From TrEMBL:
A cellular-component GO term for this protein: cytosol
Family under the similarity heading: Belongs to the RNA methyltransferase TrmD family.
UniProt EC number: 2.1.1.228
EC class: transferase
Function text: Specifically methylates guanosine-37 in various tRNAs.
Keyword tags: Cytoplasm, Methyltransferase, S-adenosyl-L-methionine, Transferase, tRNA processing
GO molecular function: tRNA (guanine(37)-N1)-methyltransferase activity
Residues reported in the UniProt entry to bind S-adenosyl-L-methionine: G112, L136, G137, D138, Y139, V140, L141
Catalyzed chemical reaction(s): guanosine(37) in tRNA + S-adenosyl-L-methionine = N(1)-methylguanosine(37) in tRNA + S-adenosyl-L-homocysteine + H(+)
Subunit structure, interactors included: Homodimer.
GO biological process, one term: tRNA N1-guanine methylation
Name the record gives this protein: tRNA (guanine-N(1)-)-methyltransferase
Length: 228
C-alpha cells in the first residue's frame, strides 16, 4: 500500500517511523510520502489560507496550493487512488471504514487546517477520483493531522503482514460489532484483585461463554446503540 499525506506540519508524521507502522514501512508493506503544502505556494510568506467569501470568522485554505500538491501526487488525469479529506463534516470513521481503507492500493490524505479547505478542491478531485470526507468523531480538532494519524494506524494494522499474529485482529473491539472482553495476565492475584476463576479453569467452552457474556454486558452498559 502507498500512502501520501499533504499537510502544513510534515514533522507531525515523524511518529510513522516508530512502532508497528515503522516496522511495516521498513518491511516494504506500507510506503509513505509526506508532502509540505507550503512547498506549493509561490509568495514570500508561503500563504496557504485567506479570508472566507461571504464573511465569518477564521480562515479558509486556498485551492491553488492544494491543486498543485495533489496533482503532483495523483497526476492531472483520472486516478485510482482514494483521496481522504478528514473533516468534522464527514462520515464517522469506523472499523468498517478502516477495513475498506486497508484494501486500497493508494491512499492520499489532505490535512486541512483553519476552517477547512476551499470546497472546490473536493469538488474538482471528485470529478476524476474517489473522494471521501471522514470524521474522527463529533468534536472539533485544530486540523486533520490527528485524525489522519488515527485512520492510518487503524487501517495500516489491517494490511496483511503488518500485525504479526493475524488472529489477534479477530477478537478485538468492534470486529464483531461488540466491545471486547476484559483481558488478564499473570499474576493471578494483584493488589487484592483476582483473575476471574473461569479463565484459570482450562475449560475452553466455559471461557468462550464467559467472554461472550462480558462482551454483551459491556456493550449494553457503555454502547447500547451497538446492539442489534
Ligand atoms: N478536523 C477537525 N476536526 C476533525 C474531526 N473531528 N475529524 C476529522 N477531521 C477533523
Amino acid at each position: 500500500m502507498r500512502i501520501d499525506i499533504v499537510t502544513i506540519f510534515p514533522e507531525f508524521f515523524g511518529v510513522l517511523d516508530i512502532s508497528l507502522l515503522g516496522k511495516a514501512r521498513a518491511a516494504g508493506l506500507i510506503e509513505v510520502g509526506v508532502h509540505d503544502l507550503r512547498e506549493h505556494t509561490h509568495d514570500r510568506h508561503r500563504t496557504v489560507d485567506d479570508t472566507p467569501y461571504g464573511g465569518g470568522a477564521g480562515m479558509v485554505m486556498k485551492p491553488e496550493p492544494w491543486g498543485e500538491a495533489l496533482d503532483g501526487i495523483v497526476g492531472s488525469e483520472a486516478s485510482d487512488a482514494l483521496l481522504v479529506v478528514p473533516s468534522p463534516a464527514g462520515e464517522p470513521f469506523t472499523q468498517a471504514i478502516a477495513r475498506e481503507l486497508a484494501e486500497e492500493d493508494h491512499l492520499v490524505f489532505a490535512c486541512g487546517r483553519y476552517e477547512g479547505i476551499d470546497q472546490r478542491v473536493v469538488d474538482h478531485y471528485a470529478t476524476r477520483m474517489r473522494v471521501r470526507l471522514i470524521s474522527l468523531g463529533d468534536y472539533v480538532l485544530n486540523g486533520g493531522e490527528v485524525a489522519v494519524m488515527a485512520m492510518i494506524e487503524a487501517a495500516g494494522r489491517l494490511v496483511p503482514g503488518v500485525v504479526g499474529n493475524p488472529e489477534s485482529l479477530v477478537e478485538e473491539s468492534h470486529e464483531d460489532g461488540l466491545l471486547e472482553y476484559p483481558s488478564y495476565t499473570k499474576p493471578a492475584e494483584w493488589r487484592g484483585f483476582e483473575v476471574p476463576p473461569v479463565l484459570l479453569s482450562g475449560n475452553h467452552g466455559a471461557i468462550a461463554a464467559w467472554r461472550r457474556e462480558q462482551q454483551l454486558e459491556r456493550t449494553k452498559r457503555v454502547r447500547p446503540e451497538l446492539l442489534p
